[in-house]
Amino acid sequence: MCMTLTHRLQLLLDEERFERVSRSAREQGVSVASVIRRAIDASLAPEDRRRRAAARLVLEAEPMEVPPVDALLDELDEVRGSRR
């Protein structure tokens, strides 16, 4: 992935975190900054990737019994504290 890097960030890490990041960078043969950028991408995925992942989980879920619509509406009313 080729992108123009335009923002500089100063980040302070404790020794244990720095060692983990440094070790990972050495093992992967990349810079510490690259490891941190990848960690950001992995933990703060763009919204469309999150939505696709959520949709995939829903579509891959096992079928389940669903009560009739009236029963579902009653349950929603109960949760909301209102009655129809």
How is this structure best described in words?
- By secondary structure, this protein is mostly helical.
- The protein has one domain (16-80).
- Helix content is 62%, strand content 0%.
- The chain is built from four helices and no strands.
- The chain has helices spanning 15-28, 32-43, 47-60, 69-80.
- Helix 1 packs across helix 2.
- The chain is elongated and about 60 Å long.
Please provide a brief summary of the model.
The chain has helices at residues 15-28, 32-43, 47-60, 69-80.
Keywords, separated by commas or semicolons:
single chain; 84 residues; mainly alpha
Largest pleated sheet: none
Q: Give the overall form.
A: elongated
Strand % is: under 5%
How many DSSP H or I helices? 4
Rounded mean pLDDT is 90
User: How many DSSP E strands?
Assistant: 0
Low-confidence stretches: none
Percent of residues in helices = 55-70%
Compressed to H and E, one letter per element, the order equals: HHHH
Gyration radius (Cα, Å) is 23 Å
Question: Pairing-aware structural class of the strands and helices?
Answer: mainly alpha
- Total tally of structural domains: 1
Gap between N and C termini, in Å? Answer: 54 Å
Layout of helices and strands:
Elements: H1 15-28, H2 32-43, H3 47-60, H4 69-80
